[in-house]
Amino acid sequence: MQDIADLYQAVILDHNRRPRNFEEMENPDRLAVGDNPVCGDHYTVFLKMAGDRIEKVSFSGAGCAISKDSASVMTSMLKGKTLEEAKALYNDFHTMVTTGEVAEDNLSDLSAFAGVYQFPARIKCATLSWHAALNAAADPDTKSVTTE
Ligand code: ZN
């Protein structure tokens, strides 16, 4: 069992100090608010779509280090992906944070979250922004998602 401090050490990367795409988007095609009431994580994810391709993605809001870091890594990885590619990436990520198994070697920065599976309460923190982004990308009527 890893110490929670080690997880934070691993997860608080550059992304937490300098989060990527951390800004409200003007005139987004889609947006969804993601809420994790257990931890208090609250983010809005903004998307610009080109057909089924995610052309631009950004986020705003606040929450714990894991949720913020995860949202930052997510935005840097989803840019340019089709919805299907984004879903496949999320499946690998979800497997990793729930089992610790790194399914693909193209997970790059996402592999920093492999230790999350040891802290089940943190899984929702790590996946919150993904739920918001993928639901908004799949359905323009999605306006909010919650982990509860
Ligand atoms: Zn959290």
Note the topology.
Elements: H1 4-11, H2 14-17, E1 30-36, E2 41-50, E3 53-62, H3 65-78, H4 83-99, H5 123-138, E4 144-146
Parallel strand pairs: 1-4
Antiparallel strand pairs: 1-2, 2-3
Helix pairs in contact: 3-5, 4-5
The structure holds zinc ion.
Zinc ion (ZN) binds next to helix 3.
Structure characterization notes:
It is a single chain. This protein is of the alpha+beta class and 148 residues long. It has one domain (2-146): Sufe protein. Chain: A (Alpha-Beta Complex). It is 40% helix and 20% strand. The protein contains 5 helices and 4 strands, in the order H-H-E-E-E-H-H-H-E. It has helices spanning 4-11, 14-17, 65-78, 83-99, 123-138; strands at 30-36, 41-50, 53-62, 144-146. Strands 3-2-1-4 form a 4-stranded mixed beta sheet, covered by helices on one side. Helix 3 runs parallel beside helix 5 (123-138). The longest helix has 17 residues, at 83-99. The protein is globular and about 40 Å long. The two termini are 27 Å apart. The mean pLDDT is 89. Bound molecules: zinc ion. Zinc ion is lined by residues 36, 39, 41, 63-64, 66-67, 125.
Short note summarizing the structure:
The protein has 148 residues and is an alpha+beta fold. The protein has helices at 4-11, 14-17, 65-78, 83-99, 123-138, and strands at 30-36, 41-50, 53-62, 144-146.
What characteristics describe this protein?
148 residues, 4-stranded mixed sheet, Sufe protein. Chain: A, alpha+beta, binds zinc ion, 4 strands, 5 helices
Strand order of the largest sheet: 3-2-1-4
Please give the share of residues in helix: 25-40%
- Cofactors and ligands present? zinc ion
Low-pLDDT parts are none
Largest sheet: 4 strands, mixed
* Strands, count: 4
Strand content: 15-25%
Number of domains: 1
Q: Which radius of gyration do the C-alpha atoms yield?
A: 14 Å
CATH architecture: Alpha-Beta Complex
**Do you know the CATH topology?**
Sufe protein. Chain: A
Spell out the helices and strands N to C: HHEEEHHHE
